[in-house]
Amino acid sequence: MRSDRLARIDHHTFGLVLDTCFAGLLGVAARGIVLKQTGPGKIAESTAAPVGGVRASLFNYDIDGGDPKPEHVAFLARRVAPILKGKAARCWLQGSASHTGSDAHNLQLSKTRVDKVVAYLVGQGVDRNRLLPSYVGESMASMKVAEAEGDRAVSVLCAPLISPPVHPQPPSPPTPKTTTKFRIRELGGISGGIGPVAFDHLYFQIWDPQNQLTTFYQYSAGGAGKGLKGGPPLSVTLQGPWNDFVTTARLGTDEFGGAARFTTAGTMWWTMNIVNFMGLPRGIKTDPNPTEISTGFTVGLGAATSVGRMVRGPTYPFTGP
After folding, report:
1. What is the reported pLDDT for 277?
2. H or E element at residue 310
3. Domain boundaries, the chain
4. What is the mean pLDDT, run by run of 10 residues, along the chain of 321 residues?
5. Residues 110, 98 contacting (CB under 8 angstroms)
6. What is the C-alpha separation between 192 and 80, in angstroms, rounded?
7. Cis peptide leading into 321, omega within 30 of 0?
8. What is the dihedral of CA 73, 78, 80, 84, to 10 degrees?
């Protein structure tokens, strides 16, 4: 009698196991996703990287898989972690997914992929504050096929932060020296957009040729914009030429700090850049206002506008380039 009861219990338990497995398979089928291994991880490293930095795509993740592959991990350890553990640096990371599965599922999957790369780098001793992760799901995936190995990826752009030239601090001028005729140039920087959010980290130099003085400025901001589709939405701008502008009243080179708006659009040499100094003394503005400036060669493609602050740096004697 007891053995019959045990047999009935075992039969009942086996039925529950079958029901659970069948329900799980139905759930996978409903999503249209089956975890599938796709072979070794692949890396596509771009030559269009900032000096001392790296730009690459870590791709061919397993279908519906969130873990970086050994080849990805080796690349992060060899090429990315040393940059971030050195001097001041930042790393922008973007997780992405293919079309297979629902939008919501792929958005979460792309987040899982980039979060695991962040966790690995932090485990290697990288400061978490130096990592700027984002995820886009299938929104930037190829429209031709449902499964493209390049869509199952984490894109990486890692670079040391640009610092203004370092010079010995000279004595301050005995009296303020002012003018209405200035020149400005961009020393370099990084701009871009992550989803609907744009950011800029730029350096400018403003020169007063008449009094032979120059002041350096750092502009940092976030706003609204859009970067390059199909890769990390970032652009890197190199040092550009001098641009002439005037003000409606006399100013010193050290009076351009405060609130500012910066707008950029284009690629390579064909880039339009506009800066609006909104923190000038009351009643004074640039002419033209805002001021259009030419910058150096831009690596990347996109358009972004942001409102931030011009933070004044040191002022030095300067006779010109």
Report:
1. 95
2. strand 298-317
3. 42-160, 179-317
4. 46 46 40 78 92 93 96 96 90 94 94 97 95 94 89 94 76 82 89 61 93 94 52 64 94 95 69 87 91 69 77 93 78
5. no
6. 20
7. no
8. 120
> Residue 136: CB partners within 8 Å, gap ≥ 6?
94, 95, 96, 107, 110, 195
Return the biggest CA–CA distance within the chain. 109
- Assigned CATH topology for domain 42-160: 60s Ribosomal Protein L30; Chain: A; (3.30.1330)
**Pick from 157, 156, 160: which is nearest to 85 by CA?**
160
CA 209 to chain CA centroid, Å, is 35
According to DSSP, the residues that pair with 293 across neighbouring strands are: 273
Bond into 170 cis (ω within 30): no
pLDDT for 97: 95
Residue 107, sorted as left (phi over 0), alpha (psi -120 to 50) or beta, turns out to be: alpha
Instruction: For residue 223, give the amino acid letter.
Output: G
The candidate with the shortest Cα–Cα distance to 274, out of 306, 247, 250, 251, is 306
CB 67 within 8 A of CB 112: no
Question: What is residue 232's predicted lDDT score, i.e. its pLDDT?
Answer: 47
**SS3 state at 29:** helix
Tell me what pLDDT residue 30 has: 40
Distance CA 297, CA 295 (A): 7
pLDDT at 268: 54
Tell which residue, 247, 82, 70, 213, has the closest CA to residue 160. 82
Quick one: which of 213, 126, 200, 121 has its CA closest to 172?
213
Which CA distances in Å does 291 have to 6, 219, 223, 243, 250?
86, 15, 19, 9, 17
Q: What is the token pair recorded at 61?
A: 């993740």
| pLDDT for residue 87 | 82
Strand-pair partners of 81: none
Q: Measured at the alpha carbon of residue 69, what is the angle toward residues 64 and 75, in degrees to the nearest 5?
A: 135
Closest CA to 131 of 87, 74, 81, 97: 81
Q: Is the pTM of this model over 0.85?
A: no
pLDDT at 188: 81
